[in-house]
Structures are given as C-alpha cells and as structure tokens.
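Record type: ASSEMBLY
Status: queued
Input:
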Amino acid sequence: MRELLEVSGISVSFDGFRAINNLSFSIGPAELRAVIGPNGAGKTTFMDIVTGKTRPDEGRVLWGERSIDLLKLDEAQIARQGVGRKFQRPTVFEDQTVAENLMMALKAPRSPWRVLVWTPKAADHARVAALAAQVGLGEALSRKSGELSHGQKQWLEIGMLLAQEPRLLLVDEPAAGMTLAEREQTTALLVELAKTHAVVVVEHDMDFVRRLNCKVTVLHEGAVLAEGSLDHVTANQQVIDVYLGR
Amino acid sequence: MTQPMTQGFLSKNPSVLIFLGLLALFTLTVTVLSNAYGLDLVSTSMVKTLGKTLCLCLIALAMDLVWGYMGILSLGHFAFFGLGGYMIGMWLMVARSRDIVLASANGLPMTPQELNDAIAAQIFGVVGASEMPAIWALAGSLPAQLALVVLVPGLLALGFGWLAFRSRVTGVYLSILTQAMTLALALYLYQNDSGLRGNNGLSGLQNIPGLDWAGQDRLSVWFLWASALALGLGYLACAFTVSGKFGSVMRAIRDDEARVRFLGYPVEGYKLFVFTLTALIAAVAGALYYPQAGIINPAEVAPIASIYLAVWVAIGGRGRLWGAVIGAAFVSIVSTWFTGGRAPDLPLGFYTVKWVDWWQVLLGLSFVLVTLFAPKGLSGLVDGLAGLRPPQRRGAALGPDEGALLEKEARE
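Status: finished
Output:
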C-alpha cells in the first residue's frame, strides 16, 4: 500500500544540539503506530516538524497521493491537508463552551470570509452532540471547558481531533492523567480509528503501548533505533541499553 | 440538544436590541432638548460634544474588537480615525474655498485654472504655498473623497497588518509597531511638504458647503443623528462579527493562537481581516467626528490619542461591546467636564488641586486601579447590579483535578 506520510532524512539542530538526526519514517493511510523513546529522543520535535511548527534543516516530508511537500506549507495549511494533533497537555479554549470548542474544530471552510457567513446547520449541531456523547461530554455541551476536570479536557481535545476529520492523527501521550478505565477506552478508540486513519501515538507508558498491539518505532538521539512489533524491539539489545534497561 | 437549532441573530443577542433602543432614546432626547428642534435646553456646543462622543464610542467598539476579542493591543487606531477625518476635511476645505472664491469674484468669469489657483491660494496661503499638491487631485469631488475615507485607512491597515502579522509579530512588540506607525504618520503630517497644511491641519470643517442656510444649531443635530446611525450600524456589524463561529475563532486566537493554527485556521488572515475591518470602522468614525470638531491637525494622530483609546476600553470593560461604548462615553464626558474648567477646585490647605491639571493623573490612576482590581471595568458594575456574579470559588475542591467543583458551589 502507498504510504500516506513519508518523512525522509530530516535533521534539525537547536543551537548546535542535533534534536533530529537523519530521521526517516513512514506510515500508511490506515495504520496504528506507537513511537517510544527516552526523554529528549526527539519525539515531540518529530511531531513539530510534521505539523509545520518547526522547519527541518534538511530532509523531505511528503504527504498523500499527490506527494505534497509539507515543508512548503504553514501549520494551518498542513492541518487543512488532514493532519490533526493532540497535545500532551490538554489545550482547549477554556473561555468557551464544550459546544463552541467542538464547533470550531468541526470540518468546515476555514477562511475568514467563509467563516463569517457560516452558520451551523442542524446536521452540524447533531454532529457536535454526537461527538460530545462519544467522548462522554454529552451532558456538558453548554459548560465552559475551563470548568472541566483534567481528564474531561483530554477527552474534549480528542473530540476536537475527531471533529476535524483528519487523515493522520498525531497523539501525544493520550493516556496521561487518565484513570485505568479511561485508558482502556482510549486504547479501544485509537485501535478503532486506525482501521480507517493513520494514527501515530507517542507514549511513555509501556503497558499502554502493549495494549495498542501495533508496530513500534523506537527513537533515540533523534534517529530511529529500532522498528517492529513490541516484542521484537524490546528484545533488541540496543533498545534495552538505552531505554528499557534504565 | 437543548439548544434550538434555528435562532435569529437578534434573539440570540438580546443586548444588541437593548443597546440600539437606548441609543435611539438618547438621540431622541437630545433632539427634543436641542436648540434647533425643541426646547433649547441643550446648547449647540453640547450637542456637538455628544455627537463627537458617539464617534468616540464607535472607534472604541473597533478597539474592543481588535483588542478585547482578538487580543491585539493596537496603539495606533487613531491613525485610521485621523486619516478618515483628513480625507473628508480635504473635500470640505476645497468646496468651502470654492464658495468663498466664487463669492469674492462677484460673478466675474474665471477659467478653471484661475479658479483652481485661487482655491489653492485660499487653502495653502497659511503655509506659504499656492500650489495644489497632487494628493488633493480628487478633493473637489465628494464621492471620490468619501471613497478615500475608507480606501486610504483601509489600505494602510492592510499593508501594515500584512507585513506585521506575516512576520508573526505579537504581543508588546506589535503594540510598539502600531505606535510607531501612528507616530510616523503624525510626524509626516507635521511637515508642510506633506501637502496637508503641516501643523495647521485642516480647519473650518464645521461649515458644510451648500448647507450654510441650515446653521450650526441644526447641523449639529444632523451630525448627531448621523453619528448615532453609524454607531448603531457599527454595533450591529461588530455584534454580528463576534457572535457565531467567527467570534469563537477570534477569542480562541486571543487565548492560544498556536492551537488555532493546528485546527487549520489561517490565524494571520483572521488578524489582518479584523485589523482592517476595525481600521475602516475607525475611519468612518473619524470622518464623522472632525466636521463636528471643526479642526483636525497632526496632534490628533499622535500616539497618546490611541493610548487613551485603550484606557477607555479598559475602563469600560473589554471583551464586551457595550463595555467599550460606556467606557468611551463615560471617560470622554467626564474628561470634558474636568478639562472644561467646570469642575470645582479642591483646596487641600497647602495645595489647591486644579482639575484641569490633575485630571490626567486621576485618569491614569483609575486606569491602574481598574486593571488591578476590576478587570471587567465599568461593565462589571452593571453585572453586579444585574445580579450576575462570578461564582465564589471558595472551600476545598471536591475532586483531585484543577477546576473540579468546590464545596460551596456544590451546595448551591
């Protein structure tokens, strides 16, 4: 199958520190992938590059069937191409209601002129309500999202990610701050999503990764150290040395 | 879904109707009390002050949109206000001078060239020039100058905003840039070479050509009506902009613009849109203000004017439209009272406080106090009267997470 995202040979340095060193990575249109690695391995920087927040010094990032060069686009354009991101710390717009947050994320025209004249149709309200119900916030639509608990904010952000209808989901530590039951719910959701979407999960928690039961990419010092099933990479001596052994 | 699917804009925003009703009531009251159309209880100069205040309320609305809702602390919006005034002032001066020249010619025939030269001499004699500068080419035509009222400030805002936002200048650096813009404009206008009569500015703007028969007492009421109409329409336009998804995106950009980018919204485009829209509103306000003030000079676009604008909006309560309006109205009317010499001196024994000198200190102090203790400004007082208080978040949290319900709230 043709890959959805192809990252090849990217490198980036911050003040002489090489955060990403000749990294290559690719993912298909319907695939679940876990990215693990110790702190400072370049996991977040990798996501920053794919989403346009950071420009690499060299390398290529190609997207989709028409091999669009993502490095030529800004963050908003990349997001409109269908790359959605969930941050580690929940970042929702706390001054606005759950419904407003979801409505803003809902897939629709994004340009100022069209947003100004856009009014939600019954179908849009229904979609927002359905998304809220899916993430357990069906009763909280009119609440300010700042009033929600940490876990609920996590869920709201996942709801916003789904509302965007991205083709690729970059999910940074989704299980942080969640209860065991919520983790299981999250795992199920991610596995289900990966049937039709590309999903990249950055995670520290090995139990969580094991439950995802997918291909794992291990990053170390800005490069891919190993790739394969979790059992395969955990058997790798280098991986044990730099990551698991500590 | 508890929320009805289809709701009119006005029924969703009842404050708009209340505002428009109060504005109409105010305009009607002043008209009934005016010299020209009623009981002669309000002097013509007071009508002008009130009309000018409505224009200031309109630019305060623009400031609230760009600052209160979008988070761009622009300290340069009076540049657009002043440019709007200059553009209408050019037509007023040319048309008025043409009337004067034709009257003094006593019906003697003049070639168009002679007429132009005489008008130029009439306008520019004060700066020792007699040539009509190129920028006055369209000044003889009212439709052209009316178009320039919105085109010149609009293009300046578009060009400035495009450069500033594209480079992702934000926060205090952007504020400084906007201030530099208005300062540069003021310094440019101060030069006689700029072709707008240097520090003399444009004067005699209260005389509307062709309407001499109406007299200032009637003109002042007409301008009050026009200002009220502009404020009403501006309020509707602003309320429409900040309601719905566009307003949601604006507030989201204010709170976390990087996150908005990852949702796919072109943040720079939104900033440019709102910056230019508010510049246009400011320009219209300026074009209505200066014929009532009678004179415009470069000091009007000095940075201090735009800083005052930020103070009005802060004192009124930013982030809500009527807050900005009451802030501008309250501060500028109180300012008129204090600086007009009508406020009684305050003798302290060892020193007598003369309000003309001390008003600005009082204003500065109230700005600091409002910022520190009443971030919602005067509009917070209205909330208090209406019984809308923010929840008193006291007592131990019921849950382990930040933002969990607190004991006291849960009991209520």
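Annotation: The mean pLDDT of chain A is 90.
Annotation: Chain A touches chain B through 44 residues (CB under 8 Å).
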